[in-house]
């Protein structure tokens, strides 16, 4: 009976993780189209400033944490309501006080303290910024479809990094699924077209491909390392984690804005109109929600499942190109999109079975 209860709970968690993943897919494609329109029309081609602003906004996650856990209660004086670091426990809804002394068995992981969450956020803030920056910058040179296709190669980086740190294992199913994914990516890449007219197609494709591939590499690294450090969704308050990531990016990485400005990589400039401000704020809200749901989905399922699942942005981006831009791709694109979707279904099915049997 305990085993059945545990399996049922794991099934619910996996289903919730897949729901979050579907939300992330929709939100990321929407965000990519918003930025791509700004870059394509040369209204505000500032991927570094946009990425830094989006990541800095994660600091707002600390506001509810402050009022819930750190702000003293007027009824109890100035210090009695503060939660001591050694008695922080985490559940799916936030932080709850636990007994001051926690004795854990070897097979049960202790909840992360505020100090541990702080250190983890510090270690991940640069990787997080670089991955999002490289993906956003690639939209200057490539279409949304091309960017999502190339970003899907993060599956290979996730598996490679996971294998090196003993988080993933190779088996026949995974290899076949990833080969199918690779073939699908190659098929769709053949439909790649330049995004801008002021450089040659070769230069455009080369720059966009390199940026998207580097972003996929950073994604593969931090997704595996986050799973390695946290292991289970219930151990850490994700709002606290993202809040600290936002603070570190705001406080420590603002000099990078000066660096890219004075080196001429990207001149600092505020949005030129109210409409651009609205687009940037809306995109910021999308990133604010999507990255949180991504982390929850990754911890509720597995890094490889989420990484491959994000490949579903490819057929969604294709549909959006047809509906909003009247862009019709060749049959080879549809075949590649089918392979990507089928690879996700197949690898998710077996990853879920492995998780339930472990």
TrEMBL record:
SUPFAM superfamilies this protein is in?
Answer: Multidrug resistance efflux transporter EmrE
Please provide one cellular component term from the Gene Ontology annotations of this protein: fungal-type vacuole membrane
The record's Pfam families line, in alphabetical order, gives: PUNUT (PF16913)
Membrane topology (UniProt): Multi-pass membrane protein
| Main location, first listed in the record | membrane
Query: What keywords sit in the KW lines?
Result: Membrane, Transmembrane, Transmembrane helix
User: What lineage, starting at the top, does this entry show?
Assistant: Eukaryota, Fungi, Dikarya, Ascomycota, Saccharomycotina
Q: Which organism is it from?
A: Pichia kudriavzevii
User: Which cell locations does it reside in?
Assistant: Membrane
**So where does this one cross the membrane?**
16-35, 47-67, 117-134, 140-163, 175-191, 203-228, 240-264, 276-294, 306-324, 330-347
Which InterPro entries does the annotation name? EmrE-like (IPR037185)
Q: Is Transmembrane helix included in the keywords of this UniProt record?
A: yes
What name does the UniProt record give this protein?
A: Thiamine-repressible mitochondrial transport protein THI74
């Amino acid at each position: 009976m305990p085993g059945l209860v545990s399996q049922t709970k794991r099934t619910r968690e996996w289903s919730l993780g897949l729901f979050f993943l579907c939300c992330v897919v929709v939100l990321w494609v929407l965000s990519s189209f918003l930025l791509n329109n700004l870059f394509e029309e040369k209204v505000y081609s500032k991927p570094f400033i946009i990425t830094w602003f989006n990541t800095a906004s994660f600091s707002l996650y600390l506001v509810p944490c402050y009022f819930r856990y750190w702000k003293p209660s007027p009824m109890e004086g100035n210090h009695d309501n503060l939660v001591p670091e050694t008695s922080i426990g985490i559940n799916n809804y936030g932080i709850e006080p636990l007994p001051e002394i926690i004795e854990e068995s070897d097979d049960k992981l202790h909840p992360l303290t505020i100090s541990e969450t702080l250190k983890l956020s510090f270690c991940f803030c640069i990787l997080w910024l670089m991955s999002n920056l490289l993906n956003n910058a690639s939209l200057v040179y490539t279409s949304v479809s091309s960017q999502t296709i190339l970003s899907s190669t993060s599956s290979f980086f996730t598996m490679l990094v996971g294998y090196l740190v003993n988080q993933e294992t190779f088996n026949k199913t995974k290899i076949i699924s990833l080969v199918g994914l690779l073939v699908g990516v190659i098929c769709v890449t053949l439909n790649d077209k330049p995004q801008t007219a002021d450089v040659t197609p070769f230069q455009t494709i080369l720059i966009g491909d390199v940026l998207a591939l580097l972003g996929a590499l950073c994604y593969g690294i931090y997704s595996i390392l986050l799973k390695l450090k946290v292991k289970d969704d219930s151990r850490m308050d994700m709002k606290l984690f993202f809040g600290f990531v936002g603070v570190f990016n705001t406080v420590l990485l603002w000099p990078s804005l000066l660096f890219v400005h004075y080196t001429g990589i990207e001149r600092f400039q505020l949005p030129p109109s109210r409409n651009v401000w609205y687009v940037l704020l809306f995109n910021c809200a999308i990133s604010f929600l999507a990255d949180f749901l991504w982390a929850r989905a990754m911890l509720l399922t597995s890094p490889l499942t989420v990484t491959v699942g994000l490949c579903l942005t490819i057929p969604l981006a294709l549909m959006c190109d047809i509906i909003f831009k009247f862009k019709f791709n060749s049959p080879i694109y549809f075949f590649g999109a089918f392979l990507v979707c089928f690879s996700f279904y197949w690898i998710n099915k077996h990853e879920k079975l492995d998780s339930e049997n472990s």
